[in-house]
Amino acid sequence: MKFDRSLFVSKFKEEAKEHLQDLNAFLLVLEKEPRNATTLSEIIRVCHTLKGSARMVGFLDIDKIAHGMEDIFQEVKEGRLELNGQLFDLLFESFDTINALLEGRLAKADFICHCFDKVKRGEGIEVKPRKKEEKVRDVRIIEETVRVKLEHLDRLVNLIGEVVINQNRFKQMIGNLSDPKNPLSKLKEDILRMDLIIDDLQQVALQMRMMPVSIIFDLFPRAVRDLAKEYDKEVELEIRGGETNLDKKILEYINDPLIHLVRNAISHGIESKDERLKLRKPEKGRIILSAYEEGDHIIISIEDDGRGIDIDSVKEVAIKKGLINKEDLEKMSRKDLLYLICEPEFSTSKTVNDLAGRGVGMDVVKRNIEDLKGTISIDSEPGIYTRITLSLPLTLAITRVLLISLNGQVFGIPTSLVVEILKIQKEEIKTIETYQAIQVRGETLPLVRLKDILGLEDVFESEERDDKLNVVIITFQEQKIGFLVDEVISEQEVVIKSLDKILRKQEFVTSSTILGGGEVVIILHIPDLVKSARLLKSRVRFGVKEGSKKVGTRRILVVEDSLTTRELEKGILEGAGYEVEVASDGEEAMNKVKERSFDLIVTDIKMPRMDGFELTRRLKSDDRYKDIPVVIVTAREKEEDREKGAEVGAQTYVVKSRFSQEDLLDTIERLI
């Protein structure tokens, strides 16, 4: 019987890609330790194995390249050949050529082998670099099988989903079986037992699709090496948490966003060697790529120790490109300003090339992550670091949602972003300028009607009818927002169903599910809801009346990093007739004080760059500003903080949990 090599091709490709990952890792070690005998022996062994396997299945070009690499490394090991920059480039190019051949693309195998021959003869070589965009795309190596064919595994997960839907129907039936007179009530225990079995089956099926993020992470040392060389920078990569497991479906889609973020870290973040030396930083820049599990989510972060994000440049670009007006810009917190880089067409680059400066990129990263039901946050300190954090669900197959009702229609909200559910009285709602807010344990939160955002007209007018209102508090980008809903039904684990092309493009919609009774439920897209909530002019149709007391044209500076609290205090003071300016931290406040005079300063304590204590201390130690009254408004309730406030010279210390509009206005009136 004739031997059929094609039966082994798929397995060979899978193993060959694993060998390529090993070869890349070994060669990166050799770049730092050229005489590492153990690594040389390992790389020769892998080349030999790859050569033999390729020959067996008829991949003769790969066989020739692997044979050539084996000879080169043997010469190096025996001391007849020295590793240098050109040879390293040739060897990395060899790995890329093998990968291209595995994917059925045309590749220059003969050229590579010709270069190997020239190296062995002691002649010079020149490896032409490929286009920049091709340099890192070859890291997209994802296994096509996980012991079983993925199509079978996906089919299994989908079937489990159908079983879960029926399981939910049985759970609803249990309530009807509690009556002992019901002839079917002997079935209750059987249904509960089946419930446990289905849960176990579901977990096993999902675990089969989980894979370590190292499958992606282990490819980045090579990408960082190539990009660092591209930009003539020295960069070392540290990887943490590669053993963390994630749904393979998500792994397939996060590679491009991660590549873009690492590319940005090297091209925009890490300074040149000379620049770093002038700044007294280590010559080599550092990037940390990490992953860890947090509840039902995976957190992936990319941090670099480069120049950070210039907030002033962000403001300048935002104004220039019409992303926001100057008035709104001044109201934004540092976190919100940093998030502007995710807006479409945003770029602070002063040059245009094929890797940066086109004003696109971060918006694509944001959209890709949100499509995966994840979120992105940004933190940066100029001259010190930039950290991009991605929060992703463990799996896309099943999730927990909070079921809520609007006009009798049921919607789902992912519970991972739900902080709290409250019932409030109408009288608890405060009016701040053009929007409404509530206080929850000393924290002021904006309040919006979900109906207004979704464009739903009142059918039952539940808010006008009920004494208490239902509020679902959502957290997104470190900001909390309260959404008014008609009814909170329950929390439930549901199977995610993909949407058709038309619904997929609808705003506020992320996916759907089917409940036990057969109802189709839309799962809402939180990022869209939050964005619309921020833009909505009129939040709700009722609230308390604003104060009307006028006190003249005294000028007050409000210093607070929280946009919500800053706007609350600003609204209260302007409503009382004061002229108000705002600052997001102590450093910005000091600059404003130098530019113009203020009759009083209201400040928080914990803020970036300069906190409220330091701000007060500086003001009171300067003869120009020592007579300006300072009111500290903070969440800190410890007696030692109160004492420190008095020590640095603050006139009054107000705790947010006992914050009162009337008390604040009375205090300010007394002081000025």
Explain what you see.
The chain has a 6-stranded mixed β-sheet. A 5-stranded mixed β-sheet has the order 4-6-7-9-8. A 5-stranded mixed β-sheet has the order 18-10-11-20-19. The protein is 44% helix and 22% strand. Helix 3 packs antiparallel against helix 4 (85-102). The protein has 5 domains: 6-128, HPT domain (Four Helix Bundle (Hemerythrin (Met), subunit A), Up-down Bundle), CATH 1.20.120.160; 146-208; 212-393, Heat Shock Protein 90 (2-Layer Sandwich), CATH 3.30.565.10; 398-535, CheA-289, Domain 4 (OB fold (Dihydrolipoamide Acetyltransferase, E2P)); 555-671, Rossmann fold. A hairpin with a 2-residue loop joins strand 6 (285-294) and strand 7. The radius of gyration is 31 Å and the shape is flat. It is an alpha/beta fold.
Secondary structure elements and pairings:
Elements lengths: L5 H27 L4 H21 L2 H18 L7 H18 L6 H12 L11 H6 L7 E2 L1 E2 H25 L13 H21 L1 E3 L1 H4 L2 H11 L4 E6 L4 E3 H22 L3 H6 L6 E10 L2 E8 L6 H10 L5 H6 L2 H6 L22 H10 L3 E7 L3 E9 L4 E9 L2 E6 L3 E8 L4 E3 L2 E6 L2 E7 H5 L7 H4 L2 E9 L2 E7 L1 E9 L5 H4 L4 E6 L5 E5 L1 H10 L19 E5 L3 H13 L3 E5 L2 H10 L4 E4 L8 H9 L9 E5 L4 H10 L3 E4 L5 H11 L1
Helix pairs in contact: 1-2, 1-4, 2-3, 3-4, 3-5, 4-5, 7-8, 10-11, 11-16, 22-23
